[in-house]
Specification:
With about 375 residues, the protein is an alpha/beta fold. The chain has a domain of about 220 residues: Vaccinia Virus protein VP39 (Rossmann fold). It is about 35% helix and about 25% strand. It is built from 13 helices and 16 strands. Strand 3, helix 8 and strand 4 form a beta-alpha-beta unit. It is globular and about 60 Å long.
Length: about 375
């Protein structure tokens, strides 16, 4: 057991089992030993690769999508362009480069980044210094005003809780110690869970043994963002992997060096994620007054934004080695067998705005 594991074991002995959300929070964000606190996890030398690192076209298209959204908002003189979990700043750097064709929007925007990781803030500072970004620990401290927000692979890392359906009630799956008291282990709490109120209505009568994942932090984010968009105007774009309709199933996983890793082994040394429930997230935003568009498969969204044309323009002046990288990157983002279908795109918006580019169909309640 590593150092963080030993600390969590001490906590369990002292105060009892942890919810999976509590375990994820410590494993990812412990101030000294947390996964995001201690490392840059991205790239071939890290644990996973995100879309902006796969192809520059991804960030460029998102930048142009933001410019189009700004025009649909009536071209406000000042607008907050914010990103949640900006990674190394690659997406935003590519987006801002693409905005050379939209100089009025570029002049109007003020860049704000919501990032908890000191290591990643340093990388963002290097990539985006010319844009003079302002950093925040949470969405709550963003300044007031019209907002365009982007979040790529942000929701999947927010902590989840898992509930297991018993004969008559839902019970929380928790992290405790094994019989020998020497290793972290999963267990199911014998008492019914009050968190069952957050299980989507369509799943509440699921058969015994069913497992439902709920994400209170995401629901809170959707509610606060939905209220803000309704009151102050704007739009938010979320790109992540998950299911469009609420469904039961255990999707919690750990990744280390691009390989699956045991979830409870070596906490703080592997990334922890779970699939996003887009239906629950959109419902929370709608209840707060926003309108939800999508979710649409990433492949269809990027195709509608013109990925093929942008790739063709790059290929026209690429070396053979560059051409191979451009083609493989775009294929990975679009292929249903890779990221094209599992990854989905959802927009939350001021309800007075027209349909955003690439998302013509509103999510059904």
């Amino acid at each position: 057991m590593n150092e963080l594991g030993r600390l969590l074991a001490q906590r369990i002995r002292a105060t009892g089992p942890l919810t999976i959300a509590e375990f994820m929070t410590e494993a990812l964000l412990h101030p000294r030993l947390g996964y995001y606190t201690t490392r840059d996890p991205l790239g071939a030398r890290g644990d996973f690769v995100t879309a902006p690192e796969i192809s520059q076209v991804f960030g460029e298209l998102i930048g142009l999508w933001c410019a189009d959204a700004w025009e649909k908002m009536g071209c406000p003189a000042r607008v907050i362009l914010a990103e949640l979990g900006p990674g190394r700043g690659t997406l935003m750097a590519d987006a801002l480069r693409a905005l050379k064709v939209a100089p009025a929007f570029r002049r109007a925007l003020a860049l704000h980044l919501v990032e908890a990781s000191p290591a990643l803030r340093a990388a963002q500072r290097a990539a985006l210094a010319a844009a003079e970004p302002v950093w925040h620990d949470s969405l709550a401290t963003l300044p007031d005003g019209p907002l365009i927000l982007v979040a790529n692979e942000f929701l999947d890392a927010l902590p989840i809780r898992q509930l297991v359906r018993g004969e008559h009630a839902w019970h929380e799956r928790v992290v405790t110690l094994d019989a020998a008291g020497e290793a972290l282990a999963f267990a199911v709490d014998a008492a019914p869970s009050a968190a069952a109120a957050l299980v989507p209505a369509t799943l509440r009568e699921a058969p015994p043994g069913s497992l439902s994942e709920i994400r209170p932090a995401a629901l809170s984010l959707a509610a606060s963002l939905g209220a803000r968009l309704r009151q102050q105007g704007g739009i938010a774009l979320f790109i992540d992997y998950g299911h469009g309709a609420s469904a039961c199933g255990d999707t919690l996983q750990a990744l280390r060096r691009h390989q699956h890793h045991a979830v409870l082994a070596a906490p703080g040394e592997a990334d922890l994620t779970a699939h996003v429930d887009f239906a629950a997230f959109a419902a929370a935003a709608r209840e707060a007054g926003a309108r939800a568009w999508g979710p649409a498969p990433q492949s269809g969204f990027l195709a509608a934004l013109g990925m093929a044309a942008r790739a063709a323009a790059l290929l026209a002046r690429a070396t053979p080695q560059q051409a191979a990288a451009i083609e493989s990157g775009c294929r990975r983002l679009l292929d249903p067998a890779e990221m094209g279908t599992l990854f989905k795109v959802l927009a939350l918006a001021d309800p007075t705005l027209p349909a955003p580019a690439g998302l013509a169909e509103e999510h059904a309640p």
